[in-house]
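OP here, attaching both records as promised.
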Amino acid sequence: MFGLQMVLWPPGMGIDLVVQLVVRTALVYFAFLLALRLFGKREVGQFTIFDLALVLLAANALQPAMTGPDDSILGAFVIITTIFTVNWLVSIAMFRLPRISRILQSEPTTLARDGAWLSDAIAAQEIGMGSLEAALREHGVESVAETRLVTLEGDGEVSVVTKDGSYRRRHRYRRSRL
């Protein structure tokens, strides 16, 4: 029983260490959120194997910054609770404070209008034509000539309005590999 108590609430785990874990975690959360925001919406919506590697390596690199010298289960609970609480508070702030929402969310970018690609907008978003053509096909559209509007939304998704006025919602399919 003594061993379990040591794991759950180790000696030296005072309120000052709990506060330190909360502050460290909140700072790391906001730093990571800022990095994601600065690197743009393409990173969120078009998650590639390189993006997965980036997130996994970043998580591994950031973990010691949050935990410091603590490796207790209580410390893990404090960190998890802090991450979810801060995330919840950010979502509430975005809902209630339009200015916060404008800071944290990207604006939609028009990539094509009236059947023609807007090359300056595409270059600014650093999206390859292969990815854009794939996005059109995912919407059931063969060519940009069939579109009235193609938009990169703030969440990284591509939306397509065809010339006949229909909006094509993107469907995500999960493939299983056997």
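Record two, same layout:
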Amino acid sequence: MFELNTIPLVLDTTYYNKEHKELFNNFVGQPYTFFEAIKRRGIGSKRMIVDKVSPNLNSILNTVSDLNYANIEMRKKGILIHITKGLRNFTWAIPFYHLVFYKTDGISIHAQGKFIHFKKSKNFYENKNFLRSLLEEKVQFDERYKTPAL
């Protein structure tokens, strides 16, 4: 079992592993129930094209000229980014207190010294409502745990 302060935040999730599930639940919260997901009008994005990643994430991308895809799953205390590399799947867990968005030519998500940039494409525009709700969830989280001004 991993301890939370020493966990690898990008895990190979190609095959089911009970420890990974427990780790994700402890780190970014439980998944939403079916009814909560309907109430929120969805908790997952459609797949998006990965344009660039930080050098420490290059190992989980396709080395050939194939397109790389990823999608985002919203959890109660953070997000999971599921990245597909051929027949393998990797999941990057990001709690809300680490999460930073940048609106560039597409969208860039930064956390824990890593980043992933999604290309502006048709799939990106289809996810606009999801990304808006994700940003609202992040703002609500920040408001709940705001540090007092000095």
